[in-house]
């Protein structure tokens, strides 16, 4: 009868609501735990980065290796700020113009993946991983680096520290040295207003999952460096990635 069907539907909806509540509660607890426990958050983020930074992703690796980290660009003593899992070593491993590679990576759980790439790719040049902040690279002498590279890092550095990182990169670069950068950025609110709004709404959740990563106006940081570096040029583009919310990118070159 219709009464029996109604009762069954009510019970089903009640059960589904209860299950949904439990799921949401568990997610909230997990996110809260990640937010307050930096050690677990670093471990989870390192694992997540290793899963997302896929060397078999041909389109993204071609972008990294052929446009950002081309052999003709990267040479001498190379400093990578925020090396992460070491994914960029796939672009650098057979570059005979590189003398040494120093990686700045504050997350200690990334080193396991970096060491794996160094071994797997049979890296010939000298390598060193420093677990220090890129805002104060005291272990690196001024005017000692030929090339600085940084990919997907500034989003995780809280304001106003991105400026300090860019200034430190300028300090360690040799005169004429070049700084190559690629970052995801917040969508232009005039060009993509809906995406911009969505990024702002999901921002707090994104920040927890992404270990501090935020949707930032990266171009503003670069513009601020035009009075510091001899030359600052950049270009906005859409990265060939499946994660639509993070497709807005920017790539640039800063010359000391």
TrEMBL record:
Please cite one Gene Ontology biological process associated with this protein: methylation
Q: Which UniProt keywords apply?
A: Membrane, Methyltransferase, S-adenosyl-L-methionine, Transferase, Transmembrane, Transmembrane helix
> What Pfam families does the record tag this protein with?
Methyltransf_23
Q: Which domain of life is it from?
A: Eukaryota
| Entry GO MF terms | methyltransferase activity
Q: Does the keyword Zinc-finger apply?
A: no
**Keyword Oxidoreductase listed:** no
What InterPro entries does the entry give? SAM-dependent_MTases_sf (IPR029063), Thiol_S-MT (IPR052356), UbiE/COQ5_MeTrFase_CS (IPR023576)
Give the stretches traversing the membrane.
12-34
Read off the CDD domains from this record: AdoMet_MTases
PANTHER family recorded for this chain? METHYLTRANSFERASE LIKE 7A, METHYLTRANSFERASE LIKE 7B
User: Protein name, please?
Assistant: Methyltransferase type 11 domain-containing protein
Species source reads: Didymodactylos carnosus
């Amino acid at each position: 009868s219709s009464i029996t069907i109604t009762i069954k539907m009510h019970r089903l909806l009640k059960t589904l609501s209860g299950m949904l509540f439990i799921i949401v509660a568990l997610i909230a607890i997990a996110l809260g735990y990640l937010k307050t426990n930096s050690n677990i958050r670093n471990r989870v983020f390192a694992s997540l980065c290793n899963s997302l930074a896929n060397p078999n992703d041909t389109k993204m690796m071609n972008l990294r290796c052929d446009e950002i980290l081309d052999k003709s660009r990267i040479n001498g003593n190379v400093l990578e700020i925020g090396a992460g899992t070491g994914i960029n070593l796939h672009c650098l491993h057979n570059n005979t113009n590189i003398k040494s590679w120093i990686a700045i990576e504050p997350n200690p759980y990334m080193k396991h993946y970096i060491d794996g790439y160094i071994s797997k790719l049979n890296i010939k040049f000298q390598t060193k991983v420093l677990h220090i902040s890129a805002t104060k690279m005291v272990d690196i002498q001024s005017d000692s680096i030929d090339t600085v590279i940084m990919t997907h890092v500034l989003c995780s550095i809280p304001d106003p520290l991105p400026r300090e990182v860019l200034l430190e990169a300028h300090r360690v670069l040799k005169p004429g040295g070049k700084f190559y950068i690629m970052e995801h950025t917040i969508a232009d609110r005039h060009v993509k207003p809906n995406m911009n709004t969505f990024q702002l709404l999901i921002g707090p959740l994104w920040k927890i999952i992404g270990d501090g990563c935020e949707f930032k106006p990266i171009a503003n940081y670069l513009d601020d460096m035009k009075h510091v570096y001899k030359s600052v040029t950049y270009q906005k583009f859409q990265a060939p990635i499946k994660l639509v919310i993070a497709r807005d990118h920017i790539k640039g070159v800063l010359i000391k």
